[in-house]
Design goal:
52% of the residues lie in helices and 17% in strands. It contains seven helices and five strands, in the order αβββααβαβααα. A five-stranded mixed β-sheet has the order 3-2-1-4-5, with helices on both faces. The protein is elongated and about 85 Å long.
Length: 189
């Protein structure tokens, strides 16, 4: 009788550990794993990594202009909309968005195509409403990105986002007159 109780207790302990492990994995995957990467490009290049709940995990400036835009702001744990509003406001204050340079590229990369498309549309509409006022008119370009090793390598080499690297490759495929190096340093405008 004692052996049977011990075996049953061991099996129950294994199932309890399995359940706790599964719940821990789901909690981590929902709150701390990167669900999407949103890139904002003008000439400042900034990547925003968010979890599946659209909470900011990290904001990464990819060049010196991006570091100026982000400044001392810490967005960890904040809502993606709040971070985007603050970053666009900083771009306006620091002169990266003005009447002559009024275009911004939004790129969204994620593992769920439907959610990625919805996030792209939502952010495009939100940034358009921020930029199109009585005193200022801006253009919002948006795209979904499927990051691969080649795009990531080009982006890292030139200090730009994967979204801008994809746009540059698209321009190069349409016109062989340009090189990646000559286009990577230009603003989105």
């Amino acid at each position: 009788k004692n052996t049977w109780v011990r075996r049953l207790s061991a099996i129950a302990a294994v199932f309890a550990l399995l359940i706790v492990g599964c719940l821990g994995f789901l909690y981590y995957n929902s709150n701390y794993a990167v669900g999407s990467t949103v890139s904002l490009d003008i000439n400042p290049s900034i990547e925003i990594r968010v979890n599946r709940k659209d909470r900011v995990l990290d904001v990464i400036p990819l060049n010196e202009d991006g570091r100026i835009v982000v400044g001392e702001m810490d967005f960890a744990g904040s809502d993606l909309d709040v971070a985007v509003n603050a970053l666009v406001g900083s771009m306006l204050r620091n002169g990266y968005l003005n009447e002559l340079s009024n275009s911004i590229l939004i790129s969204v990369d994620g593992d769920n195509a439907e959610k990625t498309a919805q996030l792209q549309e939502k952010l495009s509409a939100e940034i358009s409403s921020l930029l199109n006022t009585d005193t200022f008119s801006g253009a919002v370009l948006s795209q979904t990105v499927t990051a691969d090793a080649d795009l990531r390598s080009l982006a890292d080499t030139y200090g730009i986002t994967v979204g801008k690297a994809q746009l540059v490759k698209q321009i190069m495929s349409a016109s062989p007159l340009y090189t990646f190096e000559s286009l990577a340093g230009l603003s989105i405008n």
